[in-house]
Amino acid sequence: MAKEKQDKDLALIKKLIGTKKLVVGAERTIKALKLSKIEQVYLAVNCSKNVEDDINQYCKLNKIPVIKMEYPNDELGMLCKKPFSISVMGIIKEK
User: What pLDDT is recorded for position 14?
Assistant: First the structure.
């Protein structure tokens, strides 16, 4: 069950990579969270504790779900076809 959810989330992320609806990176995601532009946040399994705490704090204020992926940040970068590791991603709200 949990594996199916992770696969669906990963498929959604891969679909959004080419669009402007995916925010990649902790700083950009936190900035968008402060502006209430994010509807869902994904964290890598090995995301640093201080970044995870910041993301959780802003998500709790805006009642946004945080999904902890079972992939490490370097593997998320490869799955998203990026030449760098990805610890935090956010999906931008539909207008």
Answer: 84
Q: What is the pLDDT of residue 2?
A: 65
Total Cβ atoms within 10 A of residue 54: 17
pLDDT attached to residue 41: 95
CA dist 77 and 44 (Å) reads: 10
- The pTM is what? 0.89
Q: Which stretches of the chain drop beneath a pLDDT of 50?
A: 1
Strand partners, 67: 42
For the chain, the domains span 2-92
Beta partners for residue 88, in sequence order: 43
Query: Which CATH code for domain 2-92?
Result: 3.30.1330.30
Amino acid letter at 52?
Answer: E
SS3 of 42, please? strand
- Tell me the two tokens of residue 13: 């992320």
CA distances 18 to 13, 50, 70, 80, Å, are 10, 29, 23, 10
43: how many CB neighbours lie within 10 A of its CB? 25
